[in-house]
């Protein structure tokens, strides 16, 4: 039998496998456990994919879905969506346990996105492997934390690692911008618009049911009514910033950001085909620069990270955005020759950040709760997607097993 090159099988932790086939890896039946996933961003969709391929029935409830409107795109669509080893350029970790878990999630996701990028359906998915270079104000060897991170990356299993100051001139970076050292690796770069629509189509083809609705109360208070209404055996919260209310979590906060979108089709100036980032300590203002080829036609350039700012009131002419553009041009002068996309020049959104970083655990405020939380990913939703989804599925499996044991005990007692 000829191999179907459109089907990719991806290995996840614990020997579990997911597939791009519309048929789930483990077949579900009308009697299979049912999971309600709340949230239609990348975290919710990838989590649903993993649950479906473990044989669960899945309903996804979300107030909005991926769309093509410049004014109402989801945060997951606006994201830079370049895979990064944690901590990311626009993020930080103060908790060592959280950082360790994040590295595991990131590497699980790296291998999953890499498998898709190297497949025959990479263009359909919207992912490719690109040279991704990171630039530093001083020699990496003189910065203990950066040196430790670089050595971890080098030994992590990523492809294409190279450390050399020569990357600065090779990639056209102006050394006067503060770059003195650099390293690079091959990283998944995801066209988040394309990938979000592909993920939605995939989970629906596997049987997921989509419900458009917004919840306005603590899930602990809604748990029983939601379980009864959807006949759900477990609930997974992937609502990002909405977890401020839905998980009653005051640690959640927005990290406002924006991206300029350049035409990068090679018609007027040579295409930029690699990603570049410079750390915040390369300039006195602590500002970041990242440049990512989004697809064959678009280059996204950022950025800024403004905590606790909810208003999406910037545009391509705003002073913050103009300063961001100036920094990027100072860093990579060839940007000066490029034109902004006249239809969609600027995208902005709120990264769903959390003090203490990602929360991925079973609900703790109620005994034997069937709620699992996966939120607070900040700017790393795409980078952590598959790793977090696999861990969520493990926790859901434990909840389902616990429920079955309880049912069996109740049946035995009823017979006595």
TrEMBL record:
Keywords: FAD, Flavoprotein, Oxidoreductase. This is FAD dependent oxidoreductase. The lineage of its organism: Eukaryota, Fungi, Dikarya, Ascomycota, Pezizomycotina. GO terms for molecular function: D-amino-acid oxidase activity; FAD binding. It holds the Pfam family DAO. Transmembrane segments: none annotated. Gene3D superfamilies: D-Amino Acid Oxidase, subunit A, domain 2 (3.30.9.10), NAD(P)-binding Rossmann-like Domain (3.40.50.720). FAD binds at residues 75-76, 239. One of its GO terms (cellular component) is cytoplasm. Its cofactor is FAD. One of its GO terms (biological process) is D-amino acid catabolic process. D-dopa binds at residues 351, 379. Belongs to the DAMOX/DASOX family. Residues 35-394 form the FAD dependent oxidoreductase domain.
């Amino acid at each position: 039998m000829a191999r179907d090159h459109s089907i990719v099988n991806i290995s996840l932790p614990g020997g579990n496998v997911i597939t791009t086939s519309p048929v789930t890896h483990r077949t579900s039946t009308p009697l299979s456990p049912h999971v309600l996933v709340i949230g239609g961003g990348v975290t919710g969709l990838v989590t649903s994919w993993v649950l479906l391929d473990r044989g669960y029935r899945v309903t996804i409830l979300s107030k909005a879905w991926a769309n093509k409107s410049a004014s109402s795109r989801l945060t997951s669509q606006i994201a830079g969506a370049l895979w990064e080893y944690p901590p990311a350029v626009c993020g930080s970790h103060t908790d060592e346990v959280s950082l360790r878990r994040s590295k595991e999630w990131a590497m699980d996701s790296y291998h999953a996105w890499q498998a898709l990028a190297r497949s025959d359906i990479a263009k359909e998915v919207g992912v490719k492997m690109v040279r991704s270079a990171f630039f530093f104000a001083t020699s990496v060897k003189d910065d203990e934390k950066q040196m430790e991170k670089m050595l971890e990356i080098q030994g992590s299993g990523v492809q294409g690692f190279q450390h050399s100051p020569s990357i600065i001139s090779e990639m056209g970076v102006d050394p006067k911008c503060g770059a003195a050292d650099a390293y690079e690796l091959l990283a998944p770069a995801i066209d988040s618009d394309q990938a979000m629509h592909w993920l939605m189509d995939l989970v629906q083809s596997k049987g997921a049911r989509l419900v458009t609705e917004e919840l306005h109360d603590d899930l602990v208070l809604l748990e029983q009514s939601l379980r009864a209404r959807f006949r759900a055996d477990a609930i997974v919260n992937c609502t990002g910033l909405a977890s401020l209310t839905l998980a009653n979590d005051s640690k959640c906060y927005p990290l406002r950001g924006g991206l300029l979108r350049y035409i990068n089709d090679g018609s007027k100036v040579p295409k930029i085909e690699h990603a570049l980032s410079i750390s915040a300590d390369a300039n006195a203002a602590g500002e970041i620069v990242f440049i990512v080829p989004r697809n064959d036609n678009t280059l996204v350039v950022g950025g800024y990270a403004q905590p606790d700012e909810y208003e999406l009131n910037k545009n391509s002419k705003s002073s913050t955005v103009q300063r961001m553009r100036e920094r990027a041009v100072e860093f990579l002068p060839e940007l000066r020759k490029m034109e902004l996309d006249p239809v969609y020049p600027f995208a902005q959104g709120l990264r769903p950040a959390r003090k203490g970083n990602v929360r991925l655990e079973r609900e703790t405020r109620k005994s034997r709760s069937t709620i699992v939380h996966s939120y607070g990913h900040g700017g790393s939703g795409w980078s952590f997607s598959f790793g977090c989804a696999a861990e969520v599925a493990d926790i859901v499996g434990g909840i389902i097993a616990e429920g079955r044991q309880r049912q069996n005990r109740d049946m035995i007692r009823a017979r006595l």
